[in-house]
Amino acid sequence: MTKPSRKLSALARTRRRNAARRAKQRRKTPNGRLFLAGATHPDQIKRRLDWLALEWNLPAPPKVYATPTTALISYIEKHGILFDWMVYGRVRDLVAMKQARRMAPQPSLAERCARLPPQARETIRKVIDGLLMANGEPCA
User: Fold this and answer.
1) pTM of whole model > 0.90?
2) How far are the Cα atoms of 120, 126, 139 from residue 133, in angstroms, in the given order?
């Protein structure tokens, strides 16, 4: 048994033709090809952010919706994540993020120790004093 052929209305034919033209235009650009391949889907964005959070030891990213939320924007700004990489997943943007992260100034040892709780600072001071005394140097 064959299906009866269904004629499309003029409006449906126009919409289909315009959609095909838009898809053809999208295929001409790298971002358009990524869009057509599904790289911009919220599930793909969530997968990329989850991977990066695991790789960089970041807190879990917020929920990803079809449009960016303020929580998501503040998360990517706080952790130096490029918006283009998050949306399209291009390797060149990932490399740029890694280079920027590597070039970021690291806090000095004194600054890192200043952030520790007082008990931890006291423990570190005792360990350093013990090491200095073992070498015969006077403690300050």
Assistant:
1) no
2) 20, 10, 7
